[in-house]
Amino acid sequence: MTVSIGVLSSAHVHTDAYADQLATREDVEFAGVVDTDPERGRETAQRHGTEYVDDVEALFERIDAGVVCSPNVDHLEWIDRAAAANVDVLCEKPLATTVENARTIVERWRAADIRIGVAMPLRFCEPARRAKETLEAGGIGTIRSISGTNRGQMPGGWFVNPDLSGGGAVMDHTVHIVDLVTHLTGENVVEVYAEVDTRFHEIPVEDVNVLSMELSDGTAFLLDGSWSKPDAWHTWGDATVELTGSDGTVAVDYTDQSVVHTPASGPDAGVNCVFHGTNTTEALIGDFVAAVREGRDPMTTPDEGLEAVAVVEAAYESAETGEPVRVDY
Amino acid sequence: MRVGIAGAGFMARTHAEEYAGMDIEVVAVASQSGPEGFVNELGLDAVAYTDVATLCDRTDIDYLDICTPTHTHLDFVRTAAEAGVDVFVEKPIAGTLEEANEIASLVEEAGLTLMVGHVVRFDQGYRAAKDLEIGSHGVARARRLSPFPDWGSDDWFADCEKSGGVFVDLGIHDLDYLRWCWGEVERVFARRRRDAHGEHGFVTLRFESGAVGYVESSWSQPDSRPFTTELEFAGNDGLVELSSADESPYQEWTDDGAVVERPVAKSAYRHELEHFVACLESGTEPEVGAADAIASLRLALAAERSAERGKPVRPEEVVV
To answer: Where do the Gfo/Idh/MocA-like oxidoreductase N-terminal domain residues begin and end (chain B) (predicted)?
Structure first.
């Protein structure tokens, strides 16, 4: 059975990666793109051989599901509209920019008969899956500490406009590893202490994001999610997590499966990395399409998306007060 | 030059092996249980003593090299000061500020030269990293991951009263190095997990400059994992990365196993000891004197206090 899917806003930099999947999958009919910025929407539709649709409701009539790639602050509104039209949703992360909005999304999800997924591709990273198997088999004993990174280059655009993004590196680069750690350990973050600042770029949002956290079982969890990688670095950033237990350590480094390419000239001159590991976007979209088709939950559900948003909100509160903050779920 | 070594454990051995390649004679070694085995094994032409005071009565030694457990440092510095002998002491300078301050006073009153063995400053990779251009400071990352140090005599590392725990003994390497590179620290926040034979902790730092940093220190790694260090300096105009795990300049595989080594003609310990000896010869102050070592100890103790209290701590709050 083919599932009909549309793109709901193409503001996010990941839109093209999702649209590529929608355009090439045999089990998907890529029905079109809607966007609050018609020119951006048209260009996206054109790049992926689908149509730009002016009338959102008209697109909703034709699709089973939509992929929300809007600026962060608009996630709730898109989900509201999709839920009203009984359309399933895969939402770009973070689920929302406030716990309040994330809670509203969870309520909508529980009240409506629709499937909502949150885009957490790291859960599909093969080395992370291996880690989960090892942890579930008790391979490293009782976990004592977790050290994670999700450094990146500064993304620019609406990501640095707090009215659209809801914040900088804390908003952008906390949730991936927090979600992965929650997924791997089955524990929640219960406390956050944050060192946050703007030190790398002249931007109106923070680019330093160093979080010291505690999990519900007492595990210490440090995360560096700063936008600290120079544009000249060999790739967009990193995503790593290292878990140390009583009987061993497991480490996952998502981008460490890459071909090194060094063009001698042109705009990409210098060392570049071409990722050759398992395509997590393909796995993420594949899971979502199957969820829509089978009427089941996708890998990451809104209640889980809410947990990561709660950590983000606690991190901002800690940065403001200078004290560790309990996470309120 | 002639040196007397206090201690006959892991660090005494490390130093003695370096002295063998330097123009330094190890003429005396003292350890409570008698260092004859140590002296013989290393082929030293040294007299064995069971107490440091008797060793320091010798008039022919140029300095005392204290390689004993942390909680014994003050006593041996006192002995050296009474004998008027210069001192090299392993890090940390002491386990408490009270003891460290007393060491500083003793050395000052006796007019002696003292250096504390913050060896990371003499690691050539870390030394090079310090001066690479990155623009203004953003985030510093330093990790030091080791199995539990079970090589101490009577398992003294496991006794926090003696070793101070993972921040005071291991984390202090990176805390001292980061202070050296990025200046003084305004506040720390730390977490750690500790049980019978494992400890792992994180310290986040806010420097007085406004820059942020963090130190991860582990005594929790499995024996199969090589000792691992990692350093990163991120600034607004560049990035510095240094990782032991990424360096394998010499590898060897046989049917019996694999070997990865990072051989250098002069180890960091050698650079450190050569610097100290050069200071004694020229009458100059070593790079890491008591004041510096005390500031780094204060930072490690602040981390320890933060981990205990669950609150951020300013180093100046730590007075004992």
So the answer is: 1-118
Same domain, B60 and B139: no
- Contact at CB, B212 and A208, closer than 8 angstroms: yes
* Residue of chain A nearest B236, judged by CA positions: A200
Residues B189 and B109 in one domain: no
Does domain A3-120+282-301 bear CATH number 3.40.50.720? Answer: yes
Domain residues for the domain of B279 are 2-118+269-288
Among B186, B202, B220, pick the best mutation site for testing chain A contact (most A Cβ within 10 A).
Answer: B202
Phi, psi (deg, nearest 5) at residue A118: -110, 135
Distance CA B168, CA A147 (A): 20
> Is A246 in the B-facing interface, judged by CB distances under 8 Å?
yes
Asked if B287 and B275 count as a contact pair (C-beta separation under 8 A), the reply is yes
Whether the CB-CB separation of A250 and A136 falls below 8 Å is answered with no
Look at B201 and A197 and tell me if their CB atoms are within 8 Å.
no
B204 contacts chain A (CB < 8 A): yes
Of the listed ranges A77-91, B41-55, B157-171, B204-218, the least confidently predicted one is: B157-171
- What CATH number has the domain bearing residue B154? 3.30.360.10
Chosen for mutation from A244, A247, A258, A323 (greatest number of chain B CBs closer than 10 Å) is: A244
Element counts in chain A: helices (H) and strands (E): 11, 14
Predicted TM-score (pTM) of the model is 0.96
Quote the CA–CA distance of B29 and B163 in Å, as a whole number: 22
Alpha carbons B173 and B190: distance in angstroms, whole number = 16
Task: Looking at the structure, tell me whether residues B71 and B208 fall in a common domain.
Answer: no
* Fold of the A122-278+309-326 domain: Dihydrodipicolinate Reductase; domain 2 (3.30.360)
Residue B162, pLDDT above cutoff 90: no
For chain B, the domain total comes to 2
Regarding whether B174 and B300 lie in a shared domain, the answer is yes
Nearest chain A CA: its distance from B282 CA (Å): 42
Chain B touched by A218 (CB under 8 Å): yes
Confidence of residue B154 (pLDDT cuts 50, 70, 90): confident
ipTM: 0.94
